[in-house]
Amino acid sequence: MHGKTPIILGKSDFRILKRYMADLSENESLSSRLLSWELRSAIVVEDDLLPENCVRLNSTIKIREWPSNSVREFSIVHPECVDPKKKMISFLDPWGAAFIGLSKTEKVEREINGNSKCFEIMDVRPLKTQVN
After folding, report:
1. How large is the average pLDDT for residues 97-110?
2. Number of H helices, E strands in the chain
3. Sequence-separated (6 or more) residues with CB below 8 Å from residue 78
4. Which of 13, 25, 47, 94 could form a disulfide linkage to 31, CB 3.0–4.6 angstroms apart?
5. 48, 3, 126, 132: CA torsion to nearest 10
6. Pick from 90, 112, 101: which is nearest to 31 by CA?
7. What is the spatial distance between Cα 48 and Cα 43, in angstroms, rounded to a whole number?
8. pLDDT tens digits for 50-71?
9. Cα dist from 82 to 11, 58, 76, whole Å
10. Residue range 5-33: average pLDDT?
11. CA angle 117-122-125, nearest 5°?
């Protein structure tokens, strides 16, 4: 899902993601299974050492898709906190799973909803209101 470069996660996010992945059945979405696979090679650091520009839980990110040049902005949250009206999506959603652990300015190719697309992460910032 994230290619050859390992994702970078803070310890608290890693524990949360591992807990959710352990509870998933074999019938879960491809993006959830791929995120589970990525956790195996993730670089896990102390939370206070995680770079500010790294996509984590409760991050708001802005991405640009190529070649359409369309821009999207959304926040990645826990599944119980999803709110489509506020553009808050789960880390288990294909869009959330595709970017967790990556960093601002990274350019990546992802398969989302069966379509391969190229993206650049334009901005990463903490969600204004932290949710758990």
Report:
1. 90
2. 3, 7
3. 16, 57, 90, 91, 131, 132
4. 94
5. -80
6. 112
7. 14
8. 999 999 999 999 999 988 899 9
9. 22, 11, 8
10. 78
11. 125
